[in-house]
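Exercise (ungraded).
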Amino acid sequence: MKLKRITKHPVLEIPEYKEVTFTWNDKKLGGYEGEMISSTLFANGVQIFGHHPKDNSPQGLFCANGQCSQCLVIADGQPVKSCMTPLAQGMVVESVEGLPKLPEDDVEPQIQTADVKEVDVLIIGAGPAGLAAAVELGKLGVETLVLDDKDRPGGKLVLQTHKFFGSVEDSHAGTRGFEIANILADDIDKLDSVDIWLNTTAVGVFSDKIVGAVKSVKKKHYRQIKPKKLLVATGAREKMLSFPGNTLPGVYGAGAFQTLVNRDLIKSSEKVLIVGGGNVGLIAGYHAIQAGIEVVALIEALPQVGGYKVHADKLKRLGVPILTGHTVVAATGRDKVEAVTVARLNQDWKVVPDTHKTYAVDTVLIAVGLAEVNEFYLKARQWGMDVFCAGDAQEIAEASAAMFTGKIEGLKIAQSLGLPVGEIPAEWDEKATILKSKPGPARTREQPEREKGVFPIFHCYQEVPCNPCTSVCPVGAIRTERDEITGLPYIIDLDACTGCGSCVAVCPGLSMILVDYRDDPEHPLITLPYEIWRERVEVDQKVPLTDVDGAILGYYPVEKLSTRRKFPGTLLVQVKVDKKVAKAVMGIWVQDQQIEPSLIYEKELPPDDAIVCRCERITAGEIKAAIRRGIRDINQLKAVTRVGMGACGSKTCRPMIWRIFQEEGIDLGTVTDRVDRPLFVEVPIGILAGAHQGGRIENK
Amino acid sequence: MKTSDVIIVGAGSVGVPTALALAEQGFKTRVIDMHPSPGQGENKHAIGGIRATHSDPAKILTCRRSLEIFATWQDLYGNNIEWLKGGYVFPVYRQKDETMLKKLLPVQKKYGLRIDFVKPADIQQLIPGINPQRLRGGTFSPDDGSISPLLTVNAFYRRAVELGVDFHFKERVRQIQVENDHVSGVETELSEYHAPIVVDTAGPFSPELSRTAGIDLTVVPDSHEGAITEPVRSFFKCMVVDIRPGPGSKNFYFYQNLHGQVIFCITPDPPIVGTAKGETAEFLPQVSARLVHLLPRLKNLRVRRTWRGLYPMTPDGSPLVGWNQQLRGLMHVTGMCGQGLMLGPGAAEVVARLIAAETTADDHIILEAFSPHRSFKGQEALK
């Protein structure tokens, strides 16, 4: 069987791996040493990891982030999260069919407990916020320990193959996310007072002001850490939607998808539909196409997409239909997703009859927003710890903002330790606010009338915090309006442009071209950025060019291809075009043909069948019934229905439960929220006892 | 409108069954609780073990009736409270424990308990994988078992509501009101309610409640922690109680519920007195070390959640049940010492009969042993 792996990618390098063999339900399969079992299984075409004990429903990957427990498999006799357990040679991996059997291993474990580790600053999470804070603390020589559950630092930066927005000086704008992760990790390496424990999962914050963590270096063991100051930089988790079929394998978050595709280079799907037009959904669509996966459509419930216009424009130019005012009605399939039905919404958020469209897809990506991972922060506050919070854990925003809030909180911590750091500059807070800001309305802008010389054209119509183009121009000819990072960029002097093309190469939105009339004013040479399949553009070949919105302007021959050393992933494509279209060109159409949906939706599924609690398989209907019986305390709701009682501790269902209360017309002020308790991630009793167990995990 | 026959303060493991028992006797009953719904005080911190295996006849009698109520609940009322008749096992590794447990057998049998001291092989069959080194056997009482505290309190609550009990949640009682040396009702943050009888089922908050009427109670709350694991296929059915001491602890106990989850708890030594309920970092390593020693295969079972709850303790380990002799109209059903779930329904019926003046001979044994005004000289062996 052909493995579902990405063997070439326009932006990512394909690293060398060591191949190993393992068994899946007694069948011998191949995989890569150290890759997460879930990714190996996907590469082998396996997406059903087991069946639920309650209703035998198929179970599969959901968060790909170690949070939800949906991806449980049995590895060498132990139930483990496949998305967090690396593959090793000879592993025996089995699906979890109903309840797992506890291995009859009656050897009493050796116990070696470690002392409580005391540290000045503990940071949970080595993502953009945690690393940025650690850099500030490290520069001041503060003893800092950073924990992260993944095998490499960077958090979700690792998944981001696009160039970052934001500002060059503050947040590495123009650099790709995974490269920023490396830069930050290198910065930390140079700082003697900062230590990072990777493969280490924080599992709880206790009332004695101690953080418990499972460290998986060589062998898994339990550590207790007592910090003077705690920084929670745990990021965000993806929100889920309630619709029938929402737990079928093949329905998962856009972030989980990016993990599979961009981190683990798995061609996880053939055809996807994306639900949600925020930046996460839009970028996931772009990542899918880069990975050779078709995007049949992206739908958004609101009348317009909420993400950056440049991201939406990129998708449109690649041929992806963006359906606004649409919702997902149901996902269907026997054991996994085979089709998804969407429909138009009216002004009252109700489905308009006879507007259903059904697409044959194998994957539905949910990108309907993020929720703060704030359980550690809230517990630490409850126990009166000196706790700080940065990045998405503080407020959901872009990674550029997370780096900034990390810096700020890092300095605040130093201040609270009595270090002479002075006042934190007021403009830092302003910058953080700007970086968190939502995009402005789309504007129109007039392009220069001139048809001679060489100069850039900005197809950038919306105010977003972004300015890399201003910093790369060798003659300093590009500025932003009002000199603000959110202002639209413009060229101050058309004659100043040297035609170097650096601005085209750096632009994170891929929304700039260069038009050069110098050789042939009737057929100017345009330079445009391109990050999709390289084989589609060859010198002398005619390519379909589109305007910013994806309307085809004509077929024109490629003159030259080049890349800049700093931006090897961005191909600069030079095409000779008619002068009448030159300034309108922005992209190359690549998706072969649009997938037409069928307009039939035969079997209407009741919305109440949607699963709210995935762990315990509790439906929206069961929760509504309890609310209608008068339940207003989510703790009581949990007691009588088991909603939120599962492995994940209500991480996924909590926002959905609140939404049902709202939809039922209940005054939310009368509803009592659930009480959260550790552990936030399950830990074997042996490890808590002080045994060193497992032990195939090595730090990378 | 705000007058009833009885006001119960506390809608937990004791208050809800008491309300139900009183409603069944035809009393107009009102229940007031500061929490937002039933069982949100200590009920939800209970692990669910139900036994009549005690050393004190009053406890044996009370819990035998509770067991009967739990065992027949689903048949009578339809809702599943996850009753699991798996028995209790006290495995024994020390001569002195064997002597102590064997000495209790005659009185336990006299009060109707099915219990025996069984051989090591029987214990190994009941608890597959139990550490066999120096295992001397242990007691097994097959009629004991477990229930879901959460489902049970909610099932009793729904039944009580059906019988007309009026529940008030999110309402804290400020004051027990007294007129002419007799209880006249309570004042809450929101209102005043009148009744000639106030029943104190406030558990760890009983001393605070009684103090509003100038009554000192010999109840001191301390805290215990518990935890629950992921579910695995059922491999044992009994509650296991290891009565040996460990570092910083006395006994600990655990069972596997109907969902396949193992639930466990430990008794700290010395006790942690007070009403703090924050989960500690100490508990899980401490109890886990004991669990993997007693039943090594548990090492591979993952802990899902942990919590800390309160035991309203009395000096002798037995509850306070009966009229307060200083203040007429005040009834205590409190100081359950962590056994409110198992004592609650049995004690509730005794209290209802006491209020209705229809007590039985067994009730007198119970009321004497649990009298709030007893001397507190003894000590329950199987506390």
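Further reading is listed at the end of the chapter. For now, observe: Chain A touches chain B through 54 residues (CB under 8 Å). Chain A has 17 helices and 37 strands.
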